């Protein structure tokens, strides 16, 4: 998924700490095989890149909620970023992607190197995917390890670990549901798609960073619960906008082809709604076709729009934003946190990349 702009840049303290954590593991890898060390080199490059959206959410929220334990917040932010890397790596394997952020991902890099060294294509790809699966596992375990070692009282550490455990559990459920929907073995309702989005995106990208920040800041349970509900709602808004941009966005701004989701057969709310239109049958063969042409993609987009799907999703985004604003107004959140959330809703609603 794309990333919203959520405020200040990641602190130098966070960058230094994440670098320290990764360098330690990379150093340990030197005692093993050369390919294993190369795997950690690739993981370090990947984890230190990106926009660090989730760590920023966590660190900004921790400050807004009056948190004072910067070290604990920074370590939690590192864990959230490592979890993100793990899920992205596994997601690429599931989607059979070879590219991430405009360059070869771990599967692509390791498979390409094996091909250059004379490995058969099938074996090279298996090597690349195996490397990715192990890399994702390593990041997931490292994220858990960082949280388990938080230098905080036992109550907060256990609460943080419970959030992490539930986040991974839900994210896996969402990913599994997404794969099932993409097989198109049965009709997906709007509720099916929204449930998948809530589990796959909202849980780890919004709820986890914000509730971890609240727990570490010592916020009372009622406030943590309010923040969790609001975060989930914002996550769904974010993903609905992402799906619209994936089909109707400006490729120069999004950096992503408006045909890729259609070629992959991604079951979004747009598609779920458009399926009920009689014209869908005329373009259904193009959906999920790796060889879909530009003109066929344009036909799909036209049917989706003319079915009313785009208007429906835009209307739903607007309604969800109104709902979140109401929840923020009625909450007991301190003003700085409420203001951050209002800004975040606006960004998720109007973003173009």
Structural class by helix and strand composition: mainly alpha
Number of strands: 2
CATH class: Mainly Alpha
| Mean pLDDT over the residues | 93
Question: Can you tell me the overall shape?
Answer: flat
The Rg value, from CA coordinates, equals 21 Å
CATH architecture: Orthogonal Bundle
What is the assigned CATH homologous superfamily? Farnesyl Diphosphate Synthase
Number of domains: 1
Can you characterise this structure?
This protein starts with 11 loop residues before the first helix and ends with a helix. The protein has a two-stranded antiparallel ribbon. 75% of the residues lie in helices and 1% in strands. Helix 4 (70-95) packs antiparallel against helix 6 (121-148), helix 4 packs parallel to helix 7 (154-182) and helix 9 (221-248) packs parallel to helix 16 (335-350). It is built from 16 helices and two strands. The protein has helices at residues 12-29, 34-48, 53-64, 70-95, 106-116, 121-148, 154-182, 190-216, 221-248, 251-254, 260-264, 269-274, 280-283, 294-306, 309-330, 335-350; strands at residues 99-100, 103-104. It has one domain (12-350): Farnesyl Diphosphate Synthase, CATH 1.10.600. The model is unreliable at 4-8 (pLDDT under 50). The longest helix has 29 residues, at 154-182. With 353 residues, it is mainly α.
Provide the descriptors you would attach to this structure in a database record.
353 residues; mainly alpha; Farnesyl Diphosphate Synthase; flat
Short description:
With 353 residues, this protein is an all-alpha fold. It is built from 16 helices and 2 strands. This is Geranylgeranyl pyrophosphate synthase.
